[in-house]
Design a protein that fits this description.
The chain is of the alpha+beta class. The chain is built from 9 helices and 19 strands. The longest helix has about 50 residues.
Amino acid sequence: MSLLRIYASLHDAPQQCQWALVSEGREPVVGQGPLAQLPQRAERVQLVLPATEVLITRANLPRSAKRHAGSVLAFAVEEETLGDPDANQVSWLGTAADADVLAVADRQGLKAWHDALETAGIAEYEVHCETLMLPLTAGEWSLAWDGREGFVRTGQIEGAATDCGDRDTPPMSLRLMLDEAKGRIEAPTSIVLYQSMTAPDAESNAAPDPEAWERKLGLPLRLAGPWDWRRAPPDAGVSLAQERQRWRLASGTLQRLRPAAWLVGIALAAHALALIVDWTRLAGEQRSLRTQMESRFRTAFPDAVAVADPALQMRRKLTDARHAAGQPDSADFLPMVEKIGTALKEVPAGSVRIASYESGRMTLELAAVEEAGVRRIVARLLQSGMRVDTSAAGTRAGSATTVLTVRSS
């Protein structure tokens, strides 16, 4: 697998860069120049940021904020950055000792490099920090040192840049980090020191005096030879973020999908035609039934002037005929009271506050009746052939009430 590493400073304009083409089993091919001259067709691309331009810190986040990058995480490290939260791109790396680990970088610088790499034909790449590319052994810290300053990796997803030091004096920030780790009972057993080859004159810088550093740090110091981001193994490091290529149709996809699109279009057209035919048939049947109802109504009542609703008018004529013959109708008061009384047989006494009747419609106001009891009443009325409308529960005289409007069907 071929891996292209691009060393990018977010403080510089994205015009020139150092790069390394890494392949397994081969010596890396390194170079420097404009982005337009970067090697093409690498299977993986990594944008490597200097240790001094990425802040790795701990924070305690709510569960909903984890695994998100943006303003929510930026406000979580506002006190650490002492700047505008919107100016930072913050990524959640994971957890360490029950705390959340965040990586902070300059948002505008990342966007400038993103635009420049996209112009150069690179739309998908990983973002790495050289701090987390250092080799790491359990129980030890790894320090890259160029003779004046460097950076240290303190865990799988933690590390920091150091301030200046010299051959006899380790950097003050390293000693402060050790004191803080001792307070959390996370101090290492030793520090492995690598000679950083990032600086142009790194080869001429002398390594520190191990005995002098050990006396001031209070830990063993082990020299491990040179280290360079260009020659780090392909699997070294932890990705801070991954820029993914926007979804696009591959070349020729539309041509391959055209027959399927025609089939889908024909199927939809056939379905729409079937719906139109079915709707037309049902509309014709409805008109035919209405015509039959009007015809039967006029046959039974030839003196009718107009027929607007044959079913309703037939029911009214039937009611008039029953009254003329001295027979009760289902919409009369007494038959309705009998059916409603049967439906209300389980209602506690005093629950019916109001009962009114008018033109075949009875209105009942029930108080202190549970919803399940109302449903049982409505079910009994429907079974007896009545039509029921239930209003939304209200408040009357300090208690919940339900209004039922009952009609004969």
